[in-house]
Amino acid sequence: MSDVVTVLEVTGALSAAGGLGYAKTRAPRVFWSLAGLPVARVRFAVTYRSTMDVCGLTVQPSRFRAFMVRNVARRPDVQPVPPKVRRVRGSSTGMKVMLRLPAGLEPGDVAAASERLRHAWGVHSVHVVEVRPGFVELRMTGYDVLRRVRMPRRLPRGLTSGPMVVPVALREDGTVFVRDYQRVPHALTLGANQSGKSMYQRNLIAGLAKLPVGLVGIDCKRGVEQRGYAARLSALAVTPDEASGLLDALVGLMEERFDVLSEYGVADMWSLPARVRPVPLVVLVDEVAELFLTAVKKDEERRDRMVMQMIRLAQMARAVGIYLEVCGQRFGSELGKGATMLRAQLTGRVVHRVNDKQTAEMGLGDIAPDAVVAVTTIPPDRPGVAVAGDSSGGWSRIRTPEMTPAEAVAVCREYAHLTPHIPALEPYRPIVPADPAAVDAMPVVKPVPVTE
Ligand SMILES: Nc1ncnc2c1ncn2[C@@H]1O[C@H](COP(=O)(O)OP(=O)(O)OP(=O)(O)O)[C@@H](O)[C@H]1O
Fold first, then answer.
1. ipTM of the prediction
2. For a substitution probing ligand 1, which of 170, 195, 397 has the most ligand atoms within 8 Å of its CB?
3. What is the reported pLDDT for 291?
4. Keywords in UniProt for this one (predicted)?
5. Which residues are 43's β-sheet partners?
6. pTM for this structure?
7. Which residue ranges make up each domain of the chain?
8. Class of the 165-441 domain?
9. How far apart are CA 435 and CA 194, in angstroms?
């Protein structure tokens, strides 16, 4: 009988070990929660003081403390003090530790030791974030969270507090990267072919589709990317001619909205009473170079007008709730007059893998110069990885979760009832095919002459 029990015990232990080994590679989130996190917590608690000491993150105690140690605690040796641990929190991707820095240490000191800390505690990465003066958070990840991106089911409170916040990707420290249109109204997404730009746009559109906002598409590649989202688009332009008319209509709409602001004596759409507040609009421009490039001389006039209208929108439309989301492979002065002026207004930047350093500089050089090197090291076998920066100078490595075009189309269809009818944009309203399979076969816009 005892032999049978032993065999059962050994078999159980072996299958548990096998299960954990399998989980480690195939389901790292499960492995981390079951085994990695408990081990890391113990390791952190046991080795904290000595690790901080060898990593140079301790300071000599104050005279008062030294006096108390010698005379009250009656200990002859006065040890250097590490930052005080205020809170330790585990999550499905890692562990967060809040530290109170003693006088003499600054966040940069801890950040400079992050590689040493990561090795000492056996975690995948350690990122240091200053939360308020004197306090830093160590954000540790237990595994490579960007290898296969899974967004958390529930987002932390506070992260999606605004009316225009969309979770789009995961950062390498395990936190969620959101696109917050009130904080950063206009953005530019760059990347080489096959770098993951469309995947980023899909995640963005699927997130926006669920919000009470209007979406406007400009996709001069004949609508190959955006036509599928027709059910959720209030307007779509698929040729430079249509784009030009649509941009004129948007500028007209912006001016009408400014009249409303002026009538109510407010400077921002969000300050209007809810009953008169217009619906926010996000204008998604795919492959921006198609708007700039001209084959023949007579197109130049139209191009110049379009660029001027986009600059006007980028400079002023934020106040009336019109936001630009521009995407392209490159966006530099070679595109022509006005390109760099427009780019300067698009302060949210997401740069995927690019073919040369110059393109990385176009994307991030003016707002977060440190991030340029990070872009040039994105490996080609990791499509979807990008560097996100904004005008605060901060940046982070992000990756979107995988989403097929069919999934994004399905979300747009599910939330089609949220699509606002905007009279000024009605001539550009796309026809929604009844059968999703027939999307490609349908005409894109109603043949109504442009009026504004
Ligand atoms: N976040 C991601 N995770 C995993 N795979 C991704 C991710 N993003 C993109 N990919 C894969 O990389 C390939 C290229 O992606 P995508 O079509 O988004 O690139 P792109 O920059 O839009 O390319 P193009 O400019 O040629 O249209 C696709 O096969 C896609 O499945």
1. 0.97
2. 195
3. 85
4. ATP-binding, Nucleotide-binding
5. none
6. 0.84
7. 2-141, 165-441
8. alpha beta
9. 29
